[in-house]
Amino acid sequence: MSTATAAPLPSSAPVAVVGAGAMGAGIAQVAALAGHPVRLLDNRPGAAARAVDELRATLAKLAAKGKLDPAQADAAASRLAAVDSLDGLADAALVVEAIVENLEAKRALFRDLEARVGEHCLFGTNTSSISVTAIAAGLARPERLAGLHFFNPAPLMALVEIVSGLATAPAVADTLFATAAAWGKTPVHARSTPGFIVNRVARPYYAEALRLVSEGAADTATLDALYREAGGFRMGPFELMDLIGHDVNFAVTSSVWKAYYHDPRFTPSLVQEELVNAGYLGRKSGRGFYAYGEGASTAAAAPASAAAAPCPAKITLFGASPAANALAQRLSAAGVAHGRSPAADDGRLAEADGAVLYVTDGRTATRRAAESGVAATVLIDLALDYAAAPRLALACALQCPEAVRAAAIGLLQAAGFAVAELADVPGLALMRTVAMLANEAADAVNQGVCSPDAVDAAMRLGTNYPCGPLAWAERVGPAAVVAVLGHLAATYGEDRYRISPFLQQRVHAGKDLH
Prior knowledge:
Number of strands: 15
CATH class of the largest domain: Alpha Beta
Radius of gyration: 26 Å
Distance between the termini: 17 Å
Number of helices: 20
Largest sheet: 8 strands, mixed
């Protein structure tokens, strides 16, 4: 991947978009607003003309709502034109393909285009899953083709993945990068590997949540609430899979898994396969993890919170970690007395009427209690911001007496948390998920798919994550992330949790991840 700077295509350069569906029309809107004459083509009779009419109506509505200058809207609308054959694209400086996700269809289109456009015309494919190298392989000049992967809806989503196949000329990738930036987008360079950046690195968000449900950690509504309220994610994984559609999400996971020769890191979930087999596809079918439509009960989507427990009589916080400082701040704000002590050798966060609380390190509370000899072990989960999170998860060792459990819950409730009690699963929910997201991001960097900055930007902008995975790992501490992954691997005995060499090297060298 090149890092050289290049000039964008001039705004006077005609841009062609093939495929007038939601993605193609959205890309056409972006290009027209950036000043380009845009030609829109679709193989369905009348589809391109209808899309142009709809785009003009959309631009007019945006202007009427004050979201777009009326003159700018009128100018962009005048630049849109429907054509009915590939010959109408002959003068294009860039052709963006947004047709069906089928390798042979894409290859055939670009071969036909190559016979009609000028020698300097660039080709961009909006594929989200097909190898850019494979698409370009049938061209006489494969170096002119790169991935130009927008995210839906293209006018609103900032991210564009600029994907270089094996034959893509660096100058072509750089020009497309500069052009996407000139269109108001945030482009990132990526190498053509299965899933590119976003569809690969996002897999653990779904996979770990699905495994948690399969192991009975908690119900989906409780886990979704934790991901939102403690993790800062815009949507929990189960409601997000329902929105995407389980058929689509399962197919993407299966595609990445097969493309990586059944790497266990990407193994699809039997839980999700069952939903697909049942036709419970999510919102579009009226039922997925949740029920939708008229008459659907909202009770099933309510998270479970621990019943109120009395505030402990004696609370001591240890050290000055973000979690300890946030707990102290929250307890003080609530007028709850507590003491502070220096950091303890075993890393304990707090003591409360006999309960000993730790932030999870990837071991179960039961294992940690057995290894430390502290039977009263209670683990709390990761939070994006312990000072602001309204909800937090905990798990108790099987050795814990009931009074210990009540004291730990009472401490967190006194600090203003709604407490979600999980089964004693390794790594709890957010910690294991963030560790795996960081691990996958690190492996993408290690394999030359993208840079550390690119993977963080891609996941923030392409999936609306609250923090880039590597930036989040730096907040937790790379060594702590490596420890969590190591304990997960030891518990499950699976290669799924192998630690990325990039993470290991950075920890050994004492360097950050960027």
